[in-house]
Design brief:
This protein is an alpha+beta fold and about 210 residues long. The chain has six helices and ten strands, in the order E-H-H-E-E-H-E-H-E-E-E-H-E-E-H-E.
Length: about 210
């Protein structure tokens, strides 16, 4: 696995358009694949007023293409071996994490022949509860005082053939987790969590935690 980071140049029109409509990033990320086509995980991060595009992939990406579209120069695109980090996620290990996700839950339908309605929680308590519900089945545990919601925004997704944009809620979680089932946890890191993966959600990133 490879984690690629693109330092975005907000002086470029294409970058500003993509920040306003994640479908542009989605298309560029898909076209950057050089090997067998996979569904890639990606996310846009902001750090000290600088935006970064993070992409997790199985094969190396076309870094030159990404740089031409969104970066100031080729040096602003970096790739690292992600498999080494996966090997370190052993049972009991603690990690600082960041996750941008699209939390949803289903309301039961009054009719057995109809699917329940899928909605996004807007209350912080419900957003926190969603991540807690995902933890056990994805191989990690959380302590209440060690994680929180650090950002919420509504993303306008407009495909070229659509007249009207679709709105998706992005909730950013940050904190400390403990790995309880390494196999499930690594599967989640590679495959993502929740809905909206095509539009920059579901990718969890980790940093070593030293207490």
């Amino acid at each position: 696995m490879i984690l690629t980071r693109v330092k975005l140049d907000t002086g470029l029109r294409k970058t500003l358009q993509a920040l306003a409509n994640p479908n542009i990033f989605h298309g560029a990320v898909e076209r950057s694949q050089t090997g067998e086509r996979d569904r890639l995980l990606w996310r846009v991060d902001s750090l000290r007023n600088q935006y970064y595009l993070l992409i997790l992939s199985t094969h190396p990406l076309d870094e030159e293409s990404l740089a031409d579209q969104f970066a100031r120069n080729r040096a602003d695109v970096e790739s690292k071996n992600y498999s080494a980090l996966l090997d370190r996620t052993v049972k009991g290990s603690k990690w600082r994490f960041k996750l941008a996700a699209n939390p949803t839950f289903s309301l039961p339908s009054p009719s057995r022949n109809e699917r329940g309605k899928v909605i996004s929680p807007y209350r912080r308590e419900e957003q926190v509860a969603w991540l807690k519900s995902q933890a056990a089945k994805n191989g990690f545990s959380l302590e209440d005082e060690q994680f929180d919601v650090t950002g919420v925004r509504q993303l306008k997704i407009k495909k070229y053939a659509q007249k009207k944009a679709v709105t998706l809620q992005e909730v950013v979680y940050e904190g400390v987790l403990t790995v309880t089932d390494p196999e499930r946890f690594r599967s989640m890191l590679v495959n993502g969590m929740g809905r909206g993966k095509a539009y920059g959600m579901g990718l969890m990133t980790l940093v070593s935690y030293h207490g």
